[in-house]
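Predict the holo structure. Ligand: PRP.
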Amino acid sequence: MDRLRIALTKGRLEKKSVEMFESMGFNCEELKIPSRKLLFDIVKDELTLETVLAKAPDVITYVERGVCDLGIVGKDTIMEQGRSFYEVMDLGFGKCRFALAVRKGDEFYAGTYKNRVIGTKYPEVTKNYFAKKGMDVDIVKIEGSVELAPILGLADGIVDIVETGTTLKENGLEVIETIAPISARLIVNLASMKMKKQAILSLINDCADYLEKEASK
Ligand code: PRP
């Protein structure tokens, strides 16, 4: 019996991850019952997957540090803080994008010698984006409801995740640039990839089959 430990991102990606494992043949009944439990074993044939529910940045920490062999996490978190792991697969769900948004009608680039102020939960992504443009900006880290920053006059713009666009619209903001597409990724610990190669490759194969099935729907 093989055993792998995988960290799943709680919240938005959780349901889709569970759906994927279920369609791959794992018994996920316990995972689907709402509870405060954070660890679950799901089983399929000769493989037990010990699933761990964690916040996105922690999924990366657990995989980097090797206490989890694999993880499912958004490309947004990977772009913000990811370094040493294998990003083996785009799982296709959790699709959204990073965008630069301003108050409707604002001319972000017009006039003024002063640095633009950007509110964001993603300072690294923001820094890299404007560095590529050769533009100095002042970045203010905001923990949530980032849309408030330009409304309150704290920032000239925000770099944030846009999925449906509803949050921007309802708060009088608009996208002026798309920065990068985002979706859920399967990541693997560097050492686990060597030590547990067969079990991991077989799981990756099953994920690939799942993606094919989804694509043909
Ligand atoms: C994210 C993001 C936007 C919203 C975008 O916030 O920061 O606020 O979702 O989604 P939409 O385009 O479908 O409206 P999240 O719900 O993760 O919470 P937060 O405001 O605490 O960051």
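The mean pLDDT is 95. The chain is about 35% helix and 35% strand.
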